[in-house]
Design a protein that fits this description.
Helix content is 16%, strand content 33%. With 255 residues, the chain is α+β, with helices and mostly antiparallel strands. A 6-stranded antiparallel beta barrel has the order 1-2-11-10-7-12. Strands 5-4-3-6 form a 4-stranded antiparallel β-sheet. Strands 8-9 form a two-stranded antiparallel sheet. β10 and β11 (196-200) form a beta hairpin. It is flat, with a radius of gyration of 27 Å.
Amino acid sequence: MAIGLLGKKLGMTHLYDEYGRRMAVTAVQAGPCTILQVREPKTNRYHAVQVGFEAIKEAKLTKAEAGQFKKVGTGPFRYVREFRLPNGKATAANGDEDDAFKAGQQLTVSLFQENELVDVCGISVGKGFQGGMKRWHWKGGNKTHGSTSHRRPGSIGSTTTPGRVWRGHHLPGHMGMDRVTVQNVRIVRLDPEQNLLFVAGSVPGPENALVEVRKSVKRHGVIRKPQAFQNVAEEEHEKLNKNAKAAKAKVPAKK
């Protein structure tokens, strides 16, 4: 696991890079998040940082929840989550032990960099009860000659042995509202003043839904900045022209 931020998915838009290419991005209001507790192996047997996001009124909390925030010494928050840290000391994101995470510290989008890969986790859009064609992408049955099983599941029972329906059949049922993680998403742009992250592509969940933005687990650090396709095409074109001219010069002229 890795450190990250809580945020809200604002919606999708598009941005233009320095080469004039349009990119579809998702705007996420990430943080600021306040560290409520730092879990340590001596007391909790694991490393983690508990953060709070989106301040709310104390009247909306139960007495137990309000007492937890008073014990920490921070205001009440709507969302509270934990980010597991790798084994070792609860050091800051840059690896400096002097900047270790502490209760009351604020985490902002400065935790990330442009062109860095992150993992975004959210709850997918709920679609209610759906049939198998939409839920499992069935091909469907015959559509001619009086067939009455265009979109039906068909026979699902077994024969005498074992005399029951096998577990795990793809059948109609509730669709969506699942915890989905999109890995290795590139941060296209940062806006520290507005606490905004613009990540390439789509992010699970509806608008104004809670999302978790974590540092990538599989690919750490900043990736190489995307280059202009036009420059690459021009270089290849020039290379082909040179090869063609060289080949033409080797061919002897006809008498």
